[in-house]
Amino acid sequence: MKVPYFDLARSHQKFFDQAQSAFDRILKSGAYILGPALKDLEAEFAAYIGTKYALGVGSGTDALTFSLKALDIKKGDEVIVPSFTFTSTALAVIHAGAIPVFADVDEETFNLDPRSVTQALSRKTRAMIPVHLFGQCANMTALMTIAKQKKLKVVEDACQAHGALWNKTMAGAFGHAGCFSFYPTKNLGGVGDGGMVTTSDEKIMRRVIQYRNLGKGIDDPFVHDEIGWTSRLDSIQAAFLSIKLKFLDELNRERRAVAEMYHKKLARTPLCLPHEARDAYHVYHLYVVRVPDGKRDALKEHLAKEGIPTMVHYATPVHAQPIIKKNKLRKIKLPVTEKLRGEVLTLPLFPGMTEPEIDAVAASVKRFFGD
User: Fold this and answer.
1) What pTM was estimated for this model as a whole?
2) How far apart are alpha carbons 285 and 190 in whole angstroms?
3) Is there a contact between 84 and 340 (Cβ–Cβ < 8 Å)?
4) CA 266, 269, 273, 275 torsion: positive or negative?
5) What pLDDT, in 10s, does the model give residues 236-282?
6) Strand, helix or coil at 170?
7) Are 182 and 175 in contact (CB under 8 A)?
């Protein structure tokens, strides 16, 4: 049985007609950029996350970059980030002119390890970016305690965690700013690129509004008093995301149901399955297992031969990326990151995935291990 790695059409079928009507309405309105549809989404998303403001931008990477710049992170400042994440997290630090310092992650949750953050601190440390990886929040209780003690700015990378909770608080509501991506495969994905900054700080809000729109003044759009970008979330995306936001909790529950079936069907295999921390509500952007004994690549090849596509997140962690290795950065020991890069494997998971499809994946895994 062939199993798709991801199938957007299934989850979008729930609101296809609503989306089509919204697209028609936007096309007829002529308000394609910074129009009413974006203002509506920003208000709805801020209310959902629990912040005063939400600002639509062109991508999750831009959201991170603008947030750092709005917090006055500048050349020579150090920003602590995990290495076991997507490269955008560190690239945003470099775009802001600062220096990424890589910390290790927790072996069970794959998220930023507070102990490693403490080891990575220096007199130049000005901020940290906890990444809520694969749909689960980092330990924000411990990380915010460190930030308060050391007077650090906190920018949450919640690009994989729309709707995730830590101790009943939404991802994106803890730090000075929260950053989201609306890339199509995200839990709240659009029909193209897009991103969002969440914050309750008026200064950050005002500066992000300028950064996304060529540095134009808020009070006088003909005065440019910031160096800005063209990074605006367009009305078509905003209208689509407003509709999908109403279904986000339902879609996340479907992801959790698929994950629970995987948990049960793979429980007796040698795989190390995803762990949900006690204070977390995991929304399973990805279902990432660990394959022991150096068998990850062999399992991946076996599954592919049986019609089951998989991916590896992240065989090349950020500190090992060529563009990062060109820079002379302060090195912190990353034993867990180095271990994970050879073990992790992402299995198919998406809203609407059927139990027969999950059974097919589980059966293929068991055949590989001789069960």
Assistant:
1) 0.96
2) 15
3) yes
4) positive
5) 999 999 999 999 999 999 999 999 999 999 999 999 999 999 999 99
6) strand
7) no
